[in-house]
Design a protein that fits this description.
By secondary structure, this protein is an alpha/beta fold. It is 43% helix and 18% strand. The chain contains five helices and five strands. Helix 2 (37-47) runs parallel beside helix 3 (63-74). The relative contact order is 0.15. It comes from Skermanella stibiiresistens SB22. The modification 4-aspartylphosphate is found at residue 55.
Length: 137
């Protein structure tokens, strides 16, 4: 899978830096790291990334509302990174995937890869990673 440009929105700096290390190690480019939802919206407007990774519990606008705004305004696919949201709530927010905290490198990258494959080709890898929402769930 080719590398994509993405933003990370996470209010815990160490978690954000961990995500950055994981995704850049896999060949993706991090355009910016936001510590709250309003900063995430600014980064998406400025960089128009291929994907946004959003924590749900952010200052300002919450991550669920930010995900809705990102899809409505810029059509940027979003993955939620959280320990507190169900798949049903994530699906209702219009996100493409959900990565549960605490996450592993393998889980994060598998979910990103599944989402990117589906976006690029309409193909879902089997077995589906636990956090992939995509079609027919």
């Amino acid at each position: 899978m080719r590398g994509v440009r993405l933003i990370i929105a996470e209010d815990q700096l160490l978690v954000a830096l961990d995500m950055e290390t994981i995704v850049t190690g896999a060949g993706h480019e991090v355009c910016g790291i936001a510590s709250n939802a309003d900063e995430a919206l600014t980064l998406v407007a400025e960089y128009r990334p291929d994907l946004a990774l959003l924590d749900v519990e952010l200052g300002g606008t919450d991550g669920l509302e930010a995900a809705r705004l990102i899809m409505d305004r810029w059509q940027v696919p979003t993955l939620l990174v959280t320990g507190h949201v169900t798949m049903e709530i994530a699906r209702d927010a219009g996100v493409i995937g959900l990565v549960r905290k605490p996450f592993t490198e393998r889980t994060l990258l598998a979910t990103i890869d599944a989402c990117l494959a589906w976006l690029a080709h309409g193909v879902v890898q089997e077995p589906r990673p636990p956090g992939f929402i995509g079609p027919d769930i």
